[in-house]
Amino acid sequence: MYQFYQLLTIAGVFVYWLVIAGITVRVVVKRRAIGVSLAWLMIIYIVPLGGAFAYLLFGELNLGKKRAERAQSMFTPYEKWFSNLYKVRQYTPHVSSLYGQSISAICEKQIGIPALADNQLTLLNQTSEILTKLIEDIDQAKESIHLEFYIWQPGGKADDVAQALINAAARGIKVKLLLDAAGSRSFFKSQWPKTLSNASIIVVKALEVSPLRMFFRRLDLRLHRKIVVIDNTIAYTGSMNLVDPKYFNQDAGVGEWIDVMVRITGTTVPVLNSIHAWDWEVETNDRTLPELPECLPHKEHEITDLVQVIPSGPGMREEIIHQVLLQSIYQAQQSIVITTPYFVPSENLQLALVIAAQRGVQVDIIVPDKNDSTMVEWASRAFFTQLLDAGVMIHRFTGGLLHTKSVVIDENHCLIGTVNLDMRSLWLNFEVTLAVDNLSFTRDLQKVQQSYLSDSIKVCPEQWAKRSLANRIAERTFYLFSPLL
């Protein structure tokens, strides 16, 4: 009997070794960022069984067999749709700035989507104004309303939006609503899904989370895009979820969420609609590609906004938004201003910011003074020392949870959308951002950023160096996991 248990022990150790060795090889051959690989190896070896199990659940971009196959089959029809954008007269790469040309070149090569002219962009930075304007546009809808959000939180003016959608459906408008299952769990627990469905509104739960699905796809993949398209002529995107800040996360102790949205009319609207169509088809297998932009004649001096739509996420080209961010920082000559609620940059992004500051570019990063994610807040602080030493200026916004995701380069072009400067947004989530090559719009965004700066506390390098040992230990501890946050 003793020999039996001895053999059983040896067999168990051997099987355990095979599992750990197999996962280790898997981590290495994936050839991801060094920090990501090292973080996973650390978890696997420090927490042997739990770490291996966690990697199997969360270690790779497993979209699930059905979704992955569906996404693969969608490439050809969507590439064909995007290729037709090059034929419209609003495709005018020769009028782009040098910045716009380089960004468009990356996007055309990687995702086949060109920048288009003849857009009118309005920056909305007051949440009550955003919801009021959205309701006005919904009330004027003639044919269709497509929405997708990470979070829909019932309460306040968010309920007014829901009622406007019900009224639109009663007028015969086709309304489709796509919401992330995890982000909008409060919505799905409320009476609203049933109420909207009874009004003939199609409500779809994206990336549903359940224990039965954990072995078939990665559970923490999230639909983080915020898109509204009305009649294929008006669109909204930006950082704001469909929530009334006065009724959202009031017990988190971080204040009201501060957001912006961009209201768009013009040729970019059908492109954003096609991103919604992609997400809708991946989830439902129902294809509803929108009509292409109307090919209107124009003169070069009438061009208003050149806009590049940049989507990312599993099943799409990897790292595209990360590449655009890096290129934007590399091209900066005078200034970079970044706002983000979650700042956990990749090694390459951190290095790009350090080099920009060292070559004389003024770099300002604005983050919330208080964050709703303790892990992210401490991990974020671990990057401060190197950035401050290089001359980067870090500002902690005190007027609430600054949720705006924006980058302004040299005060004349910008990035704005749903993307946080963290690994989750850059590699895992379904995201969308706009690269805008327009001086007037960029100056409007710059004014909003300056208002954030006036309500912020600048981090003093000398005082930062005197922070407590306990804080330093917490920062370094969470820094080890930063590639996975």
UniProtKB/TrEMBL annotation:
GO terms for cellular component: plasma membrane. SMART domains: PLDc. Pfam families: PLDc_2, PLDc_N. One of its GO terms (biological process) is cardiolipin biosynthetic process. It catalyses: 2 a 1,2-diacyl-sn-glycero-3-phospho-(1'-sn-glycerol) = a cardiolipin + glycerol. It is a multi-pass membrane protein. The active site is at residues 224, 226, 231, 403, 405, 410. Catalyzes the reversible phosphatidyl group transfer from one phosphatidylglycerol molecule to another to form cardiolipin (CL) (diphosphatidylglycerol) and glycerol. Keywords: Cell inner membrane, Cell membrane, Lipid biosynthesis, Lipid metabolism, Membrane, Phospholipid biosynthesis, Phospholipid metabolism, Repeat, Transferase, Transmembrane, Transmembrane helix. This is Cardiolipin synthase A. InterPro entries: Cardiolipin_synthase, CL_synthase_A, CLS_N, PLD-like_dom, PLipase_D/transphosphatidylase. Belongs to the phospholipase D family. Cardiolipin synthase subfamily. ClsA sub-subfamily. Its EC number is 2.7.8.-. The keyword Lipid metabolism applies. It comes from Shewanella piezotolerans (strain WP3 / JCM 13877). The chain crosses the membrane at residues 6-29, 36-58. PANTHER family: CARDIOLIPIN SYNTHASE, PHOSPHOLIPASE D.
